[in-house]
Design brief:
By secondary structure, the protein is mainly α. The chain contains nine helices and no strands.
Length: 156
């Protein structure tokens, strides 16, 4: 991937382009992907409502025999349930968590990078960091920064 970026945007100074990309680009990218995954997951939860509305509108537009909204809604939810489980086997939440963790790990200064702090560290902490993870944060980041993070998260 870096080679492709070099060939397309590096010009005569690919090292300078790489240096620019290390200025919080990759951690921004991972946080943005994690946010997109969350939006995707939320949209998945709205699919039964969307499908129910689409069926009802289609039947009405084509002047078919009307069906009770509740019947269509129930049928859609029953059909969606096993399909949704197939989507869940890919582990959307796990992929999102992985992006958060990678963003924190590759960020050169997460304490100064609002996107990483707000979009990765806070969600990780809110889902319940293990005590071991808290201890590792304290080993890697300045103690004052970890203390402020914990305070911002209500003592997590």
């Amino acid at each position: 991937m870096v080679g492709e970026l070099d060939s397309k945007f590096g010009g005569s100074e690919p090292r300078e382009v790489r240096r620019t990309l290390t200025d919080h680009f990759w951690c921004d990218l991972l946080v943005a992907i994690a946010d997109g995954i969350k939006k995707f997951s939320d949209a998945l939860d709205r699919i039964p409502e969307y499908a129910t509305d689409a069926i009802l509108m289609s039947r009405k537009a084509e002047r078919r025999v009307p069906l009770l909204d509740a019947l269509v809604s129930l049928a859609v939810r029953m059909a969606w349930k096993p399909i949704r489980k197939m989507v869940d086997t890919t582990g959307i939440e796990e992929l999102q968590r992985t992006c958060w963790i990678l963003a924190v790990l590759i960020c050169p200064a997460p304490e100064d990078h609002a996107a990483v702090r707000d979009g990765a560290l806070f969600p990780l902490a809110k889902e319940g960091l293990l005590e071991t993870s808290k201890e590792r944060l304290e080993q890697v980041f300045p103690a004052d920064w970890v203390r402020r993070l914990r305070e911002d998260l209500g003592g997590v």
